[in-house]
Amino acid sequence: MTRHERLTDPRDRHFSAALDFGREWLRAPLRVGAVAPSGSALARAMTRGLSDEDGPVLELGPGTGVFTAALLARGIPPERIAAIELGEHFAVALARRLPRVTVLQGDAARVGRLTPFGAGQAGSVVCGLPLLSMPPSIVLRILAGGFAALKPDGQFRLFTYGPKCPVPAPILDRVGIVARRAAFVPLNIPPASVYILKREVRAA
């Protein structure tokens, strides 16, 4: 039996993903920003309500691909998903595991330039990055670039282990977006909250 055949068992794929995550955490714990990969409950909460109509989807920091798999399970075609991953090991492993998904190794702060869908064409951004551990200037670049890549009514989804939205209010105001807490996932390790960010609708 080949390694590829062994990994067709979901338990083996999960074990392999956990090993990949552990190796990457040892290489760059601050960049990874968590001690365990996101769980299936958080992945379901992050993608709840999304469908092909909400694509194309840009995924920032896919890591082991837990959210990517959840997007595919929601019926979003792999050709309408582009994942931007800074870590070479994560990027190579994800591209090998999901060859029809566009995987780009690069900095999510350059999402506006890296998106393969063109400016203002993505329907959703799903962000798995540890924004709480990033400098505000980097968070601003990620948010500004993400919304530049989104359609006018597009949405930016993220999660946090903290008690409130990880994007500081001055950055929300500067980009012109509002944040809404959409879900709390107590079964994740650690427990997490999901936020949906959208452009602020200003009165005429």
Structure description:
The protein is α/β, with parallel strands linked by helices and 204 residues long. The chain has a single domain, classed as 3-Layer(aba) Sandwich (Rossmann fold). 38% of the residues lie in helices and 23% in strands. The chain has helices at 3-6, 10-27, 29-32, 40-47, 66-73, 88-97, 111-114, 136-149, 169-175, and strands spanning 57-60, 81-85, 102-105, 122-127, 150-160, 177-185, 192-199. A 7-stranded mixed sheet has the order 3-2-1-4-5-7-6, with helices on both faces. Strand 6 (177-185) and strand 7 form a beta hairpin. Helix 4 packs across helix 5 (66-73). It is globular. The N and C termini lie far apart (65 Å). 38% of the residues are buried. Keywords: Methyltransferase, S-adenosyl-L-methionine, Transferase. One of its GO terms (molecular function) is methyltransferase activity. This is Methyltransferase domain-containing protein. It comes from Paracoccus marinaquae. InterPro entries: Methyltransf_25 (IPR041698), rRNA_Ade_methylase_Trfase_N (IPR020598).
User: What is the number of beta strands?
Assistant: 7
The mean pLDDT is 86
Work out the count of structural domains.
Answer: 1
Low-confidence stretches: 1-19, 30-35
Percent strand equals: 15-25%
* Approximate helicity band: 25-40%
- CATH hierarchy, class: Alpha Beta
CATH structural fold name: Rossmann fold
Q: State Rg.
A: 16 Å
Q: Choose one word for the global shape.
A: globular
**Termini separation (Å)?**
65 Å
> Major sheet: size, sense and barrel closure?
7 strands, mixed
GO molecular function: methyltransferase activity
Keywords: Methyltransferase, S-adenosyl-L-methionine, Transferase
Pfam families: Methyltransf_25
Protein name: Methyltransferase domain-containing protein
